Fold this protein.
Amino acid sequence: MKVNLAVIFGSRTCEHDVSIISGLQAVQAAEKAQMNVTVIYIARDGKWYIGEALKDTKFYTNFSADRVTRVLPFAEEGKLLLMDYPTDKKKLFGGGRNILASIDVVMPVMHGMNGEDGTLQGMLELWNVPYTSAGVLGCAVGMDKIAMKQLFRGCGFPVLPDIWVDRTEWEKNHIDVLNRAEAAMSYPMFVKPANLGSSIGISRANDRESLSHAIDVAASYDRRILIEQGVSDLDEINCSAMGYAGEVRASETEMPVRWDSDELLDFDSKYTRSAKGGASKGMTSLKRRIPAPISEEKTAEVKQLTKEIFRALDCKGVVRIDYLLDKAADKLYVGEINVIPGSLAFYLWEAVGVSFPDMVNEMVECALAAWSERNKSVFSYDSTILRTVISGSKGAKR
């Protein structure tokens, strides 16, 4: 029997457009995998839509609500149900609603806040609906660069020195923050909003003036800012992991090609420069070398770390982990984990013989396995506390 899969993307995030590209790539792969696919688009205002028009990239440049159907999501017996949204808001929860779709598994292809950060995953957990991405823990930690680095450091994974600051602290006392950063690290430094991806809001600082400007930029996107030690002569290495629980394997490695070897791999380099003159292909637009031109020993180190990080964050499905290689010291550092990577990192799996449709099949299998395992747990506990409170026991906690 065919799986009824919902691919969901968009949402209220700075990475909204990137999510659309990745989501539509996943839709095509799922259809090739012979699944019944429902496209769910969450618009920038948070409204949910379905409809065939959503499969066309061009539709989003001139969005028209008249060509799609607004829906109201809810769940029943482990399935995500989509019902028509009432035109009369007084009848929002009234009877007579039409069920437009019944979904067995949800594939979140969200990038950034309000989707990749555990919020959507928490809703699906509450509804007991299977989904393909990492869970609430992995998504929440993977979205917040400050919490992520603290976990990596606690696990003994190699990370670069850093400090963090919140926007209120920065606004109150610029000088103390700058002094603290300079006491902990040397230039160059990289300044990042804690909860954004796709290199949005990230700046390199080579001196105090540019550091101050970089913090201003990051603070405009997020209230928490990470300031991290830079590496002057580095290579970037990426690797993906796929699986669930103890069953996890690593993909081929890649080395993204930067347009300027002395600058960061920014949003433009990732998504637009290499796509000029044609339609964007998401992360597949980026030039890269696969496999990464590094030693066998370093490749083995990357793959082993990738699997260990996957397990540490209790991930499932497909993730991508980005590394920094200090070429002068031949030292590898963990950069970050992308729990829902751009283009779902399918190109890294194609390099080891796993097609995109086969990858989608495996992600669905992982989602169902995790859902089945979760439902083995006891979610109720018979106690006498209510009867004790009702009877007015003096031992009841007030």
Summary: The first strand starts at residue 4 and ends at 10. Residues 161-229 form a domain with the Dna Ligase; domain 1 fold (CATH 3.30.1490.20).
